[in-house]
Write a structure and sequence with these properties.
By secondary structure, this protein is of the alpha+beta class. It contains 5 helices and 7 strands, in the order ββββαααβαβαβ. It has one domain: 2-Layer Sandwich (60s Ribosomal Protein L30, Chain: A), CATH 3.30.1330. The protein is globular, with a radius of gyration of 15 Å. The chain binds magnesium ion.
Length: 160
Amino acid sequence: MTHRIGIGYDIHRLEPGSGIVVGGVSIPCEYRVVAHSDGDVLLHALCDALLGAVGAGDIGEHFPDTDETHRGRDSRTFVQAVLALPALKPWRVTNMDSNIIAQVPRLGPYKLPMRQFLAELLFLPLGRIGVKARTNEGLDAVGEKRAIQAQVVVLLEPVR
Ligand code: MG
């Protein structure tokens, strides 16, 4: 086995507010994310992609939303905790790619800052971090500005 691949998905409801956090970047807007933690949909999907790649469960198992210690928690600490798991120790991230699907807010200006944040978090050069943003063409809950979604894939290689 030379590589492992993992896929992650997350969705959060949006409601009126003063800003959201996506990919570690604070985005001022007229919405907030309904979530137990800081509601960073991209970092949650990243956690699931990492966990899935090594068959180590999912984010809900590791960080239950019934646990009060996770309330309002900065999601970067979820990613750091996942990376520190024994199951991840024999592996390092080769690259990651992602989709963020949101009708609001406009994410275009924040894609580069998100990639810079993720590059630092995963100890990767910028060229190994993909962040793509798109609307949902007005369709479904995302298109109706009631939700934001993210999808992440990661590739892992053995640490030599
Ligand atoms: Mg989530």
